[in-house]
Amino acid sequence: MYYNIPTEAHINKISKSKDLAFESKHLSWVTVDFDDYKDKIITSSYTVDTTDITIPAPAPAVWKQYKINEYYKSFYLPVDTGNIYLYDHESEGGSNHYRYIGKLDVLNMYIVENDNAYGRYRFYNAATGAVSYLGEGIPYISPNVKSLVFCSSYQDTEGLVDYTVSLIGLYNIDDDKKITHLYGVEIPMWIPISDPMWLSDDEFIVKVVAVEDYDKNNYKSFYYIKLTIKK
Question: Structural domain of residue 222, as residue ranges?
Answer without folding.
Answer: 1-44+143-231
